[in-house]
Each structure stands twice: as structure tokens, then as C-alpha cells.
Amino acid sequence: MTIKIEVFSSPGCSKCAHAKVVLQRLVADIGEDTLQWREVNILKELDYAVEVGVLSTPAVAIDGELVFATLPSAARLRAELETRLAASQAVKT
Fold first, then answer.
1. Domain extent for 84
2. Host H or E run for residue 2
3. Which residues, other chains included, contact 48 with Cβ-Cβ below 8 Å and sequence gap of 6+?
4. Tell me: the pLDDT tens digits for 34-57?
């Protein structure tokens, strides 16, 4: 199973840049075959951001669901992703 992660950002946001670095590291650690992420520029995809429930940046959605309305710590994001991966593995067995 692949988990889809979206980081909602706005141009010039330093916290958004940090969120992207954190996600890149997590994808490298956990694996590109397991985690896919993309940056969603809220200025270009405002309707989608509103649909997901984003009120500020950076925000993180996992599999189309807003999970973090603000930037979580790297440890908290990793824990959430590992929980979801474990749950998907349990469903397979």
C-alpha cells in the first residue's frame, strides 16, 4: 500500500519549506514505494485546499484527509505514518 501525503504551502513560507525537508527525509527513510508526497500550493489550488479543510499553512493531509492543521513535529508525523502503515499491513494479513 502507498500512502499519499500532501503538504499545503504558500510561497515564501519558511515553515512550509521546513515541512518539505521533513517529508523528504521521511520518504527517504521509509521508502518511496510506500510514501508518495506532493506540495500543494494553496494559491494555485485554493478550491482543493478549502475542500480538504486547510485554514493555514503548512498543513498536512494523508490520503486526502486533513490530519495536521499545523506543522507537526517530525516525530509526530513519523508516528502517524508508521501507525497507518502498520494498520495497512494488518489488513493484508
1. 3-92
2. none
3. 40
4. 899 999 999 999 999 999 999 999
Task: Going from the first residue of the chain to its last (93 residues), give the mean pLDDT of each consecutive group of 10, the final group possibly shorter.
Answer: 91 90 90 90 96 94 95 92 86 65
What pLDDT sits at residue 88? Answer: 79
Q: Which residue has the cell 484527509?
A: 65
Cβ proximity of 77 and 26 under 8 Å = yes
CATH number of the domain to which 79 belongs: 3.40.30.10
3 state SS of 54: coil
Total number of domains constituting the chain: 1
CA-based nearest residue to 22, from 80, 63, 93: 80
Paired with 91 in beta bridges are none
Long-range contact pairs involving 66-71 (C-beta distance under 8 Å, separation at least 24): 71/15, 71/18, 71/19
| CA gap 78, 80 in Å, rounded | 5
